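Give me structure tokens for this 412-residue protein.
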Amino acid sequence: MNASPAGRLPLGIWAMGFGSMLMDISSEMIHSLLPVFMVAVLGASVVTVGLVEGVAEASASFAKVFSGALSDRWRRRKPPMVFGYALSAATKPAFAMAQSMGWVFAARFVDRIGKGIRGAPRDALVADIAPAELRGAAFGLRQALDSVGAMLGPLAAMLLMAALADDIVAVMWWSALPAAAAVLLLVVAVREPPATAPSSAAVAPVPPGETKAPAAIRIGSIGELPVRYWKVVALGAVFALARFSEAFLVLRAQDAGLAIAMVPLVMVVMNVVYAAVAYPAGAIADRVRPRPLLVGGLGVLVLADLLLAFASSSAGVLAGAALWGLHMGLTQGLMSKLVADTAPVRLRGTAFGVFNLVGGLALLLASLIAGILWSWAGPAWTFVAGAAFAAVCAAGLIAAIRDTRMPGASRG
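Here you go.
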């Protein structure tokens, strides 16, 4: 009897998954309360929230380009990955000490820079370690564990809010503990394969049709990425434009009447579904064409936005958040697999960095538009607009690939 794909994955994949989980517990303890903290405590507008979230995510995306390119040049993934995690961990106390929006912005900016530094090398290392036939499962597992952390973080925030009499600042102080544990786990448990270490004369295996490159990889090498990779980048940008920062889910939960201590529940619900779906969807992506998952993910996003737009109770908002998590589970691991499948091995870090940069800029634009719509027309129109764009994207995707196959999938 064959082992399940998860059982066949290397230990390093599991270690990176649990490291992501611990860091997400820490981050979501803060982020599930931060929008409310900015609006209710510091007096920020919803447009400001959208700007802060969008700029923070875009900054992370810029950092991913450079860290990914450097990991290609050095043939080392672990050092920049660990440094990025450590930088994010160091920012957690800054949120607790924030007295103004400027302080919050600075902490959020540095935190996301840390995320950006670790993101591309980590994803490239997942692709380096995982067997090619299990890449979808590997990315799905890491994303699933990351989502478990994103579920446990808001849950921990809720419990601590209840225990600490709604003291948001105290909860932020507690968030530093799982962040430190994440860094320690990655330092101890993750090992790079010899092919990416500078002490080895060998480099990562070169697929048929590709040539070996010198160790010094420049940003200019972006031009060497193939056309099929750029199609995946364009697809990722469309998906990012079709949704906006999850901070708006938190604000929608408060708008629907959830008490501040219970607002993190919306992130718990979203990430329960995300975590449950991400690994199975990734494993399925190893065997079938990506089109059904991609189109299905956009269709689910349309339903999520419409439910969030017209929900008249907190239960409706939570149901919309669950559908949002289903959309993420169906699409995010698959997009990472498509990047890994279409990029040359020697430029894998750069490829993930560019992909995330373009997606981050698209998310910045989407979040700014969402904040403006919220302020001018209200929450309902914000989500209606999101549903409309997702529907247009789904229709365009169906039309664009009707007679072609997306890269990186089997015939299924």
